[in-house]
Amino acid sequence: MTDEIGGSGLDDINTWGQVREDTNKVTEEAVRRVQADQKKAQQVGQEIKNDKSTNSKFAKFLTFLLKDIRNDHLLKQIYHTFFKTRHEETDLVHLRKSMNTIVVVGMFVPFYQNEIKELGLESFYQDIFVFDGNIDLTRYIHYIKSLLPKYHDNISIDKQEFTKLLTHITDYYHLTEKLSPEKAIEFENTLKKELSLNE
Hints:
It is a single chain. This protein is mainly alpha-helical. It contains eight helices and two strands, in the order H-H-H-E-E-H-H-H-H-H. Strands 1-2 form a two-stranded antiparallel sheet. The longest helix is centred in the N-terminal third of the chain and has 60 residues, at about 10-70. The termini are far apart. The relative contact order is 0.09.
């Protein structure tokens, strides 16, 4: 009767024993894989928390900055520089959905060193800027020359708008004297040369 069913009872026991052993191996591998996946998920979760915290700090600074700047021309120029982009071939202007926050905040780091430190954002800029409270035109331009390549997001910034922004910033924060329209154009051209923004 055992031959009719498909083998002796001992053969079946050995087969089941192998299946049981293989099942234990698969289960151990599955447990290790699940544990590794959980660890990765925890790391990703921590990175998201850190990103959220960092983004919150940048948002706080930008909120402060927009309240602190009392110059509509400067605010308008920030918008034109970082929220508009011009397609080089078609010359069409497009609005960006987001801006390069690290660069926008970075443009103002030298003027708000204490606020940047209080928010814990100096780590983004400390390798290109010395937080010692001092700022002058030469130091600011040198800093901008380091900031742009470090945090560029591969979306082109209109060079003319950018130099206008720098002119507004240097005027607003008294890095230059009040410039006549002719001197302002001359200063913008000098900035373009200094930052290698010539066409």
